[in-house]
Design brief:
The protein contains one helix and eleven strands, in the order αβββββββββββ. It is mostly beta strands and 152 residues long. The chain has a single domain (2-145), classed as TM1070-like (Hypothetical Protein Tm1070, Chain: A, Sandwich), CATH 2.60.290. The termini are far apart.
């Protein structure tokens, strides 16, 4: 049933497996190991170090590389110079999530961080235990520049 709903959303949004919703933005970073399960959520914080407002967004992809549409239909925000935005696959009880992607189940996947700027967007990604008010575990996720990992 979930796959049918996702397929309908994908066709309505006009996206395909290779292209997410954020068309026209620059692909800056890729996050490996993104998940959204009953107990774990992926959270990405991005800071704008430029001198202008920038649009920053996140697209999530499933284990087969297929774009996973945001059930909240939100996946980007305008970030002021020096400002920070927090994206999440779900909400957190103790922290305000600026853009709640409201992702369906993602057992293992990835995320692409995109922006109007090609430089000056600094991000970090975390896998956080969402089953407790005070997370029992937090783990960093690797972020690479587009598709090039350090050492390549």
């Amino acid at each position: 049933m979930k796959k049918i709903v996702l397929a309908v959303l994908v066709s309505l949004l006009g996206v395909n497996a290779a292209q997410g919703q954020l068309v026209g933005l620059n692909h800056l970073w890729t996050v490996a190991g993104a998940m959204n399960t009953t107990n774990l959520g992926t959270f990405i914080a991005c800071t704008n170090s430029t001198t202008a407002n920038e649009t920053v967004g996140v697209d999530f992809y499933g284990p087969d590389g297929t774009y996973v549409p945001s059930l909240s239909l939100m996946n980007s925000a305008t970030v002021a110079p020096g400002g920070t935005v927090l994206f999440g696959t779900s909400g957190l009880s103790a922290v305000s999530v600026d853009v709640n992607y409201a992702a369906p189940l993602i057992s293992k996947g990835s995320a692409k961080i995109l922006s109007t700027s090609t430089k000056g967007i600094i991000c970090t990604a975390l896998l956080i235990d969402i089953s407790n008010a005070a997370p029992a575990s937090i783990a960093p996720l690797t972020i690479v520049k587009k598709t090039k990992q350090k050492g390549d």
